[in-house]
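Lay summary. Proteins are chains of building blocks that fold into shapes, and those shapes determine what they do. In this project we predict the shape from the chain. Here is one chain we studied, written as its sequence of building blocks.
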Amino acid sequence: MALLLVVIICSGLIGAIAGAVLYQGIGSRADRRDYPPPGRLVDVGGRRMHLVESGAGSPVVVLESGIAASCLNWTNIHAEVARFTRVCSYDRASLGWSDSAKTPRVTSHLVDELHELLKAANLPAPYVFAGHSYGGMLVRAYAAKYPDEVAGLVLVDPLPPREWMQPSEEQARILRWGVRLARRGALLARLGIVRVSLRMLSAGGRTMPKLVARLSSGQAESTLSRLVGEVQKMPPSTWPMIRAHWCQPKGFLAMSEYFTSLPRSATEAAACSEPPPDIPVVVLSAANCTSAQLAEHVAMASRGRHIIAEKSGHWIHLDEPDLVLDAIREILEKA
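And here is the predicted shape, written in a compact code that computers can read:
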């Protein structure tokens, strides 16, 4: 009798898992149909990277996203910059519509991949780069390695490399938590649980999404509210596409890879030489920067201009987009 009960329970679990996987597969196929890439897929060394282009003029403005963000994070800025010059945004490998990466997610590989993408896409140098957070660290490294291809830099609350080269005990705990959260998220996405949760959240339900947040991160309302709050700063037209991306394990696994590699990425970025002094730069700092971060930003802007975004948190391009647009215009004029 006990054996029969075990068999029944196991059969039920197997059936439930199979049903969840089937649900995820059907939803994924629907997402690919409903949300095709808004740009083009460019072959870079045997894998495809997603690139969105708009506007006309030169230099070309290249928008670089934060550590786990896709090109969608720049949607508003992209549209406005396209009014006065050519602009492109893209998805780094493993993010958004780009194929999964084949190499570790470290600064040296990311800079070279961006270099190859711009060449394969026939986008003429020099470029004006605008990079947010982790992306700010990457574009400074690009300017150090390929100075002849860079006409100027706009660094939007950039990540200071020295902050993460040798993580403190608290920083190491944050990275471990981020990796753990991402890996749990990937598992829940494979089982369709993230898909169900996000569908319920978009319909106004919060009980199931809270439970999923607690299962994946150990926290519920704070994690959920923070994530939803940032997404809601973006255009509503992007929300279904963002939801579709985060229903896939790929995005969570990419986040895990980027967090795992962050100390090495920071070390590589810090080892790069400073961009040449003739490359103009504007650095924007969030109002809630720490004193150490602010000092690093001031140093980055020693041969340029430093601005504190008084009404912004870390996502300045979402909180005060006009500041970023003015900075891009200023660099274009100097270039």
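What the prediction tells us: The mean pLDDT is 85.
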